[in-house]
Amino acid sequence: MKRLSELLKLNPGFLIEAHGNGHSRYFAACGSKRKKIKITHSLFEYAKKADLFPVVNKHLNLVK
Prior knowledge:
The structure is a single chain. It contains 2 helices and 4 strands, in the order H-E-E-E-H-E. By secondary structure, the protein is of the alpha+beta class. The chain has one domain (4-59). The two termini are 19 Å apart. Helix content is 25%, strand content 39%. The chain has a 4-stranded mixed beta sheet with strand order 3-2-1-4.
């Protein structure tokens, strides 16, 4: 997902920054079951700086 308008329509409960092994992934947790939708780094940073949603950091073993 690359657009802020799309992200706002989904109304996520929080944003997730998952990182490990030198890689990072960014997700928005949406809906009652908190389905994770991948978002771009720039969209994550913009939403974080604007303080639109709470941010959760996760340390994971990310393997490509």
